[in-house]
Amino acid sequence: MITAEGLCRIFGQGETAVTALQNVSVHIAENEFVAIMGSSGSGKSTLMNILGCLDTPSSGRYQLNNQQISQLDDIQLSALRNQHIGFIFQSFHLLPRLTAAQNVALPLRYSEIDATTTLARANALLDQVGLGHRKEHKPHEMSGGQRQRVAIARALVNSPKVIFADEPTGNLDSKTSKEIMQLLCELHSKGNTIVMVTHEDEIAAYAKRIIRMRDGQILEDSKC
Hints:
Structural class: alpha/beta
Helix content: 25-40%
CATH architecture: 3-Layer(aba) Sandwich
Distance between the termini: 20 Å
Low-confidence stretches: none
Number of helices: 7
CATH superfamily: P-loop containing nucleotide triphosphate hydrolases
InterPro entries: AAA+_ATPase, ABC_transporter-like_ATP-bd, ABC_transporter-like_CS, ABC_transpr_LolD-like, MacB-like_ATP-bd, P-loop_NTPase
Number of domains: 1
Radius of gyration: 17 Å
GO molecular function: ATP binding
CATH topology: Rossmann fold
Order of helices and strands: EEEHEEHEHHHEHEHEE
Keywords: ATP-binding, Nucleotide-binding, Transport
Protein name: ABC transporter ATP-binding protein
Number of strands: 10
CATH class: Alpha Beta
């Protein structure tokens, strides 16, 4: 699914240059559940942004689903993200004026799927994440846990090859965090590949493999 070789990422130039990744290589198979851990500045978010095609490496090779990413232009990268990748963010990134169903359907706006089918898919996914009764509610009318469930449904709407979750429980209390992680485990059991960034050991423990980073390098890569 994911093959990265010798990834380096440098921000800035000259004396102000900051090396965020140093010669990072990682391989993630289909249907793995991987947690990437590290303190602030370790490079974990930079690595996830590159793997999720939100950023490009300064050097190195990255292949997603047998496709060489360095050969794609911005339009092709955008299409790849929309068709094959689902994102879950700490801050949910929901549009405040849209209902839950409309937020979930958003990634399909530029697809060839008709509006009726799009809405039906969004509603079905909200049912799947336990929010069938909140389809017409807007984000400000929902709790943090409910908003994250909407974000998870949105991440699934394009039937992605891989889901990237960046601190998915960072803004949630411990009870709600457990519920969200149980939901991610259910998705993994159904065949989804999940790559999750977290700094919390108790959250990383839900994954089947943990990659620990420090100073832009992989310190440890172990299966649970």
